[in-house]
Fold Quinone oxidoreductase.
Amino acid sequence: MPKAVVVSAFGGTEVLSFKDMPSKKPGAGELRVRAIAIGVNFIDVYHRTGLYPQPLPFVLGKEMAGVVEEVGEGVTGFRKGDRVASATVSGSYAEEITAPESIFVKVPDGISDEMAAAMMLKGMTARYLLRKTFAVGPGHTILFHAASGGVGSIATQWAHHLGATVIGTVGSEEKAKLARQNGVDHTILYRSEDVAKRVAEITKGAKCDVVYDSVGNTTYIGSLDSLKPLGMFVLFGQSSGPVKGFDPSMLAARGSLFMTRPTLFNYTATRETLDETANDLFGVVASGKVKIEIGARFALKDVADAHRALEGRETTGSTILIP
Ligand SMILES: NC(=O)c1ccc[n+]([C@@H]2O[C@H](COP(=O)([O-])OP(=O)(O)OC[C@H]3O[C@@H](n4cnc5c(N)ncnc54)[C@H](OP(=O)(O)O)[C@@H]3O)[C@@H](O)[C@H]2O)c1
């Protein structure tokens, strides 16, 4: 019987259990997919802890790549044997998944299953952040927090390719080195340096057109202070905890700033936007402009170790689980 990682109560890594899950025959419009590799994302931590609550018990995880084993009635886009991937599975930490065809894309030749599992959620996020939320291009100066993380590693390479000047915050010297290899022009060690002060120095007082902040509570004031008037504050995560004390007048005080709190789901909600986003990502990876760094691999049963590493700020690039 296939196994899956189940959360039966919200909490630390001790709530993760590896259990038998009966195989589910695909219903109309569904695929049954054998997982080859599974992506680990910070949102999985929010689901495990209950920061983003959902009905218990549930299988954890959103991102995976694998092979179609069986198709349900009326499926038109996929066949048995197709290599597929998704960033929006309800329970991807599993040896086998049965889910609607609408959440899957085909993985092109040249992109391995492990790469696909490492990049669908993080890479499609980088894509909408840089191409849709704010259209980054030459002449822009951007600040990207957690620049050596999963989303950060992909987004900073992509922003560099789009011609922007990229400033990235990182938690250590080793991560700073990696960020520079990924095309980050200026690194800031945000555990010891004043981010807004350093941004002002780097930009000679001009500051940034857009700030991408997924760290949240510990960084957002520095993010706002790093923007030029009419700049865009993109708060897209909260790895340090939810933002506390935000007041809309902070946007006025710093020069009529814009702010958004986007999520990937809204940018890939239709077949058309999902295909457009995934194809742009596959294209930029195939061109070699963006490399997918798999920083760590864990066996699916060792998922607790993977979560501890991610939450402990020990990882760089993407972390994957192998069933
Ligand atoms: N809204 C969306 O559509 C969307 C989609 C995908 C991801 N996200 C968000 O993007 C962020 C990155 O996701 P990811 O999966 O790629 O993770 P990640 O960046 O690989 O890991 C998180 C990184 O955040 C930094 N960090 C700063 N303070 C931290 C703290 N107190 N605890 C833990 N980490 C801290 C660490 O890097 P340093 O050591 O360099 O500080 C850590 O490596 C998450 O906040 C996630 O929720 C949002």
Residues 113-133 form the longest helix (21 residues). Residues 247 and 253 are 10 Å apart (CA to CA). The two ends are 13 Å apart (CA to CA). The first strand starts at residue 3 and ends at 7.
